[in-house]
Each structure stands twice: as structure tokens, then as C-alpha cells.
Specification:
Chain lengths: 126, 338
Amino acid sequence: MNIPENLRYATSHEWILVEGDTGTVGITDHAQAELTDIVFAEPPAIGKSVKAGDVAAVVESVKAASDIYAPVSGEVVERNEAIEADPSLLNTDPFGAGWIFKIRIAEAAELAALKDAAAYREQIGA
Amino acid sequence: MVEFSGWEMPVQYKGILHEHKAVREACGVFDISHMGEFFVSGPGSTSWLDGLLTNNLAAVPIGHAQYTIMLNERGGVIDDLIAYRLAEENYLLIVNAAKIAEDAAWFAKHSTPGVVFEDRSNEFAALAIQGPEAAAIFAKIFQHPMPVERNRVVEIQAGHSFIATTGYTGESGFEWIMPAAEAAAAWQAAIDAGAMPCGLGARDTLRLEMCYPLNGSDLSPDRTPLEAGLGFFVDLKKPAFIGREVLLDQKASILPHKLCALRVIDKAPPVRPHYNVYVNGEPVAETTSGALSPSLGYGVAMAYMPPAYCDIGQMVDIEVRDRRFRAQVVKKPFYKKP
């Protein structure tokens, strides 16, 4: 199970890569494996404001729809249109080409509440 | 794993899309041990069953199987099942897991002297081996060619294990009924012969592409088989069977609803059961089944629609999470073998 060290993790299985005041958000390798074949993805609209824990996006497997939560508060500044065209990117490259959206981080302090790789590994028992 | 009618069953082994494709292009094996096995024997069995089921069993040759439907007095569906004619007055019925108790009670309620009904569901396991390579796998397992004809029944060991060239996927293949103690070895034999393990998820997408109804979703005690589009499996020329009068009345007037196949035109999230269907902004139905078709790459669904909206080409909207997406009534089935 791939759990990159340079990311922060939400209990609800999103990751965030922080670069300056911007964070790139996706779902973890564990999450994509649990969701199974993802056949539909809907990243949030640019400009959408979210609070940490809000539903920001939806992905759907053959059997079920799953909400994707914003790990921190902020404004959506970029959305990954490639996953709309090819939702399987979320399965094949969850930490890379399968990213979902970028957010301008409003409250940097919220990052401290997220898990590091070791704590997330412990959570999923990997 | 999910709970299904009291059974712990896998939704998938390797992945629904992967398993779906294996069945369309090669071969998959499904554990269908949850399904029920009833035996009916004794003089008068054929006419007794013909009074309880919609199709015409008297017309089925020995060694053949028939898809048929059991109705309540209102003409609604209790269950759909496959009847194997093992001898002149000897049948094996394969019924839906969720309906075993209800079906058995119905048969018991209508029992008649001379006809022996036995629910032996707990003694039997079953596998469905499906796909274009199923015949080759059959030959490897049984050292004998698979019957070419659909709906053939062969007793591998009399009264003990059975195969029928039937299935729920739209592919060639067979279903194999055996004592529960032999199931693990049979499962392994199928895999060793090249079949891919497939779960309930692929079973559902495969059958929906073919518009095969799922009882409890697409069939219900409040819908008749004519409304469900299963008239081919109803013989109204038979003098009597439970529900017949209701069907005759429906046939003489107009069906209140018809189970239509809906193809999603817009790029949309997968349509699932119980989504609202609209025509010209008015709610007219809700989906009974729905999925993103793995073979076709677009959304597919079924819904009981008022007859005015059942013509091929009729435009509808299906609501998914507060947004409406365009769909169209299409001819059944969704999927046709290339």
C-alpha cells in the first residue's frame, strides 16, 4: 500500500500536498482500492468555497457513490478535468494523475489536524 | 463481502469491470449456491405446476429447462424461476434465494394429493459458468462436450448433480447444481479449467445489459409479467393458472405500465435504482435497476413507465443527486453480441 511521506492525510482518506498556500487534493491508494473500479468523477467548480470536512467532490464506482471531503477550508482554484474524461486515473494513479482539485488554503492551522503518513498507515492498518 | 438473503457473498473478487469483461470475452464462474432448489415429483406434477406457473411446462421435452414465472392472484410476480424437466413427472425448480421461504409456502398452500414437493435448498450448491469459452471449460471438467442447444438439462449423476445450458449473462454457458459437499471441488475445477471468479457486482451489470429482470428490483408482487415485458414466458392459452384472469384483462385493455429500457445520453453519474424519471418536467416513474454499462460505456436503467411514454426514442430525464440528465427509451436488450 503506497502512502507517500510528503503528504498530509484526512481520516476520511483524502490526501493533500501543500505547496505554499495551495494544496492539491486526492484520495489515497487505500481509498481507491476500497472503492474499486471508479467509473465517474466530478471535481468541484473553480471558485467554490469549502470548509474543512465539507463535501467537495463525488466519485462513483460501479456499485456506489462516495463523497470526497475537503481536508482543509479554502477556495477551489483548479479542478482536474482529466479524471472526468478518464475516472480510472483515480485507480491507476491516485497520488499523481488522479488528483481531484487544488485549493487555496484559508487556515494553515487546519493542516496540523491532519495525519502524517505514519499516523494514516496506523489508521488503515497497513 | 455483502449480506444477500442470509448469505455472505462477494460483490467482486478482482474488480467488477474486470470480471464483467471476462464473462463477455472469455469465461467467468459465479457461486450461485444461495439459489433455491425445489424438487417436484409424482403423478400430476406437470399439470399441478402448469396451474401455478405462467409458461407451458407440458410442452417442454424431458431433459430441457424453461424460464417461467409464479404469480399471485392479482397477477403480480411472486418469483421467476427455471424449471428443469428431469422426467415425465419429475422437476427441479431453481428459485431466487430471497424467495425460497415464500415460494415454498406458496407451493405448500396449493399442495395436491400425489404430488411431492421438497425444498432441498440447503442440500445443494450451484455454480454458473458463463462466457464464450464456457463450452471449452465444460469439456475440460466433464470430459464431454457441452450441449450446443440452450436450455438443455443433463443429469451428471441421477438425482445428485445436474447441469443446464442456462444463465443470467447473455453469454453461452451452463449452470451446475451439485450437493453442497462437492461445491468447493467444483469451484476449484472451474478455476483450474480457466474460469475467472466473478461476484454479485458483475452478475448484476451483465444481466442488466441483457434487460434480464431481477426479482425484488424489476419484478414485484404489484407488477404483472406483461408489464415487465415477459409475455413470451406467459402462455395464456393454458386453461388455468393463478393470475391468468388478470393478465387476460390487461391484454384486452391497456397495460398500466411497461418496464422500459432507458439509455442515458448525457454524460452522467451512474444511474442507480429508485432515481426519478421525468417526461416534460413531470415525474412519471422511478428506475428499478441502473448502472453504467461496462460493455457499452454509457448509463443504462429500467423503469415502469406509463404506456404513453414507452415508444422507442421517447426522451426522458433521470434525476441524479438533484440534477437531471437526458435519457431515451431504447429497444431491449441494451447489449447485443458483436
